[in-house]
Structures are given as structure tokens and as C-alpha cells.
Amino acid sequence: MEQIAENIGYLFQYPVLNIKTILDGVMIGAIFALAAYGLALVWGVMNVKNLAQGDFVIAGGYICWWLAKQGWVHPLLGVQVAFIVMWGFGWVVYKLIISRVIERDLFTSLLATFGLAIMMAQIMNLMFGSDTQSVNLGYETFFFFNGFVDVPMVKLICLVLAMCLAFGVIVFMKRSRMGQAIRATSQDSRAARVMGIDTEKVYAFTFSLNSAICGAAGALVVMIWVIQPFYGITHSVRAFVIVTAAGLGNLPGVIAAGLGIGALEQYGGFIFGIGYQQAIAVVLLLIVLFFRLMQQRRKRQSLS
Amino acid sequence: MSRNHLFYAVLLAATIAAPFLFPSYTAFLATLWLFIIVALTWDMTGGQMGYNSLGNIFFYGTGMYAGAVIAIGLYFPVGEWTDASRTEVLTVTGGQYYMGMLLGIPGAGLFCGLCAYLIGPLFFGLRGPYFAIGTLGLAIAAGEIVSNIEWLGGGQGISMPHSPLHPDFEKVLIYFLYAGLGVVLFVFLKWLYSTRFGAAINAIRDDEEKAEAMGIHTLRYKTLTWAISAVFVGMAGAISAFQLIHFEPLETAYQTINLGIFMVVCVLLGGKGTLWGPVVGAILFHVFKEVTWNYFLGGQWVALGLLIVVIVVFFQDGLMGYLKHIRPDWFGIRVDEKEADA
Prior knowledge:
Chain A is built from 12 helices and 2 strands; from the N terminus they run H-H-H-H-H-E-E-H-H-H-H-H-H-H. By secondary structure, chain A is mainly alpha-helical. Chain A has a single domain, classed as ABC transporter involved in vitamin B12 uptake, BtuC, CATH 1.10.3470. Chain B contains 16 helices and 2 strands. Chain B has a two-stranded antiparallel ribbon with strand order 1-2. The chains are: A mainly alpha, B mainly alpha. The interface between A and B is large, with 45 and 39 residues.
């Protein structure tokens, strides 16, 4: 208890610590927002809640890490490789599993993707071991405020890459023919089918795109943070928090919520200690769920 | 004596005789009963009431800790017991051990029931996938938080008092605790599902809005059902605590991907929303797991994930659903010939 009070005291005593915490949070949060956007896409288009979302992120991270370790691909190029590989992986998963549960009730898809999440985490554990891994690019670090705030170059690069990816996806969804088809399907899949859109193709494409976005996000995570086979569930939970807080099809909301979650988690880690970091992500989920529930109660509806 | 009565009598006799007939399988059979208990309780909310929880393991872990705290706290300060740096040896006498067991198991059940009763109104506003994700979050959060509480031993876990019995007799005692709880639960559920209460929770599953409109106080029924299932899971958790002697929060108590998902798989395998489905599913799953587990050489968890996916995707109605489909008359469903032709 005293420790917590003391930590809060530090935040007031040295206001620059706030700047550092928020900056760290924003840089991590941008990546959370990417994964959450993928989840919102799949959720909105085909009404599948993907609990393996975080494991896609971790898988992308391992692709980048492994290629860099072999010395084949520079980690920054590994982001693109992870994007492409996870695209193919997502397509296979869609054809094998998701296409069979898409018409079924929601718990079915939730449980099927939970099974997939367990399977992926264990396969990665068998392949890469259970140690935490990260890629160190060895770029310089900038210091501000007498060294209180450190901003590593690599974090800035990752932030820019994340922004580029998000921008690319937004433009794609707005301008391209496929993007229009995806948006039409998410509004009304039956009408879209009547209008000649091959919804099956749209579903496969959306799920692959989601998986690819997650893969790229994971490759960014491995450069600025650590990955471990069993961290996937926490990333899934974060994605759910963000989507639940922001709502579907609300891209600015997703980005804002992503950055906010990142900052809140950093604050939580600072105040309660690093041991609570996983717990904070999950407790945020419960808080957001109940907050949304209270909003719905006012309209005499339940959260479904 | 009808055929049904004879069937149940034979089953009961087999239950009582099993640990003496197959002494080397006692631990296996005890775990089997644990699976049956958690599957039956999961089915209360998941199958009969339509609220698919992924976090019923929360009550299992909480039951373990509650049982441990009661059994230890009766005679020693818990903080002192879990203090890793203590040098003096704390032991309990035989009488104290059984007293702890006698109070700890029902106490854990009541505590979990109370927990469910208190958090139920919060969670039952969530429907469908939100309920599943919310309860999953509850279980994960509880495990993470407990592993940071030093008073409960933190991430190292907590050790139970040592049993005064010889390990072989201890195994039999644990078996009968599980089996007794399982039999009581089964009889209780058989009765419960035949009452208006059972009809009410089935109505909630089929159409909650209509049930509400018909005058069923749905929230009260949902909370009560969850609390009843929590009582039994909590008691099973406390028995597990006595069985395991030492346990830690993340992998044993709040084992989200282990027992937490097994119970759902058992129910799906056997058939959701039936009385016998969870029992049959638990037996099938546990036997399958025990027989094949050793052959996967570290890949058993991959196989488990695959099994979940396969069951969910291809075999969701479960064994009982399949039997209902091919032999409807066994379940008292009469198929009209004309209707069947059409």
C-alpha cells in the first residue's frame, strides 16, 4: 500500500515522469490499436469474435524475430514479411475453421478461436521455447528533460510504420473495389450477395487482412517490447477492451481507445508495479464491459 | 424395482466399489469425478440457461484458496504460514487436519456461492459473447491478482497441512469426497431440472425477453443458478486443494486453459443441456486424455486445441444430441410419422 502511495507521489513530484509514461503508452498503444482494428473488422464484417487475435500478433512477432536471428531479413523488412506470411496463414485458418463456424451461434466461433489460440500458443512454445524474446536493433536513443525521458529511435520508427499501415488500410477500405465490397458486406451481407458480391471471397479476404495486420503489429511489438508464446491472450484481451470501448466501425474511436489503453497500462504498471501488468489489461476489460453495461442499462438494454 | 432403479443402484455400487477393485486407479477415478462435477455445474449455466461462461474456473481457484485459508487459519495466522522466510516448522495434528477439512470444504463452497451471488448481477447484464469474454477476464484477472498477494503465498502458491493418513488411504478418502459430492450434485440436478426452477432457466435460455414478459424474475433465477453451481465448484476446488497439498495460482488454481476449458469441452462432447451429457462427456474426454496424453510427447496441448476446434466445428451437438437425433424415442420425443415423411 505504501509503495503504491509512494509511486503516485513520484508522479506529482516529478511531472516529467508523466510525459515519459504517456509517451511510452502511446507508442505501445498504437500497436494495440492495429490489432484491435483487425478485430473490429472481422467482428463487424462476419460477426466472428476472434479470441486468437493476440496469438496472431505473437506469431507475427516470432516470424520477424526468427528471420532476424537467422540473419536472412532485416527486422524492419521483417514487418512486411510477417504481413505476407500471416496473410497466407489467415487464409488457411479461414478455409479450415472460420468458414465452418461463421453461420453458427456466437459462442461456437468464440470457442473455436479459443481452441485455435491454445493450439497456436503451444505450437510456438514447442518451436521457440518459453523464454521471452525481443529484437534489438541497436539504434540510438534520444534523451529529453535531463535524461528523464528516453525516446528510442526504434520506437519512433515503429510508430511511423504503424501509422503508415493504418493509413494504408484506411485508404484501401475507402477507395478500392474490395474495400467497398467489405464495407457493403458488413452493412448487410444478404443485400451484398444480391448485388453480386461474392461474400465468401470477402470473408476470406477480411480474415486474411486481419491476420496480416496482426502479423505486422506483432513484428513491431518484437522490436520495441518482448514476446512470449503465452502473451497472446493478453493481446487478445486488449483488442477486446479497445473494440468494446470504441464500438464497431469507429476507426477514430479505436485509435483513441488504443492509445488510451496503452497509456493507462503504463500508468498502472508504474503505480502498482510491473507484476500487475497482465492483471491491469484484464481489469480494464472488466471496467470497460461494466461501463458499457451501465450505458446500456440506461436505455434498458443488455450488452449483447 | 423398475429397470431405472436397478441401473442407478448398479452405478452407485460400482462407484463405491471402484477404489477397492482398482486400487491403482484411485487417483484417476478421483480426477474423473472432478471432471464430472465441473462439467455438470458448467452445464447448469451453459447448457440449461444458455449463458456460456469461460470463467467458471474462477470458482474452482477461489474454492481452493478459501479452503486452504480456512483449514490453515483455524490454527495459525495465514500470513505466518505462507511466509517463505519462516524457519520454525508449523504442523497440525490429525484432529486439526480433519477439522480443517470438515469446515474448509463447505466453507469454500459457501464463499464461492456468495461470490457468485454478489458478482452475478454485474455479469448477467452481459449477453452471449460478452458474458463469455467477461467471465474469462474475471478468471484471468483473479489469477494474476492472487499471484501478487503475498498473504496468500504470491506466485509461489500455498501449501496445505499434511495429512496424518497414509497416502493410499488419503487417496481413497479424496476419492470418496469427490464421489460423494458428485453423486449429491447429480441427484440434486436431476431433481432441480424437474421442478419449476428448471423450467424457468430453460425458458431463459430459449427466449429471455419472453421469459421476462411471462413474469419470471430472470436476474434472480440467473444469479441463483450461478451461485448454486459456484457452491459445488468451490467445494470441488477445496477438495482439490487437500488432494494436491501444494498449489500455485496461475497453473493450478486459476488454470484458465486447462480445467477451465476442459469443462466446456466435456459438456460439448457429451451434449449440452442434458442431464447425462456432461457425465458421459467427462468420462469420454478424461479417458481419451489419459490414454493418449503420453503419446504426444509434449504436443498434448496442441492436440487439446485441435480437439476443441474439431469438437466445436464438427460435433457440436455432442453424443447425446446425436443419440437424440437417431433415437428420439429414448428421450420421450415422439416423431409423428407424417411429419417425418414430409
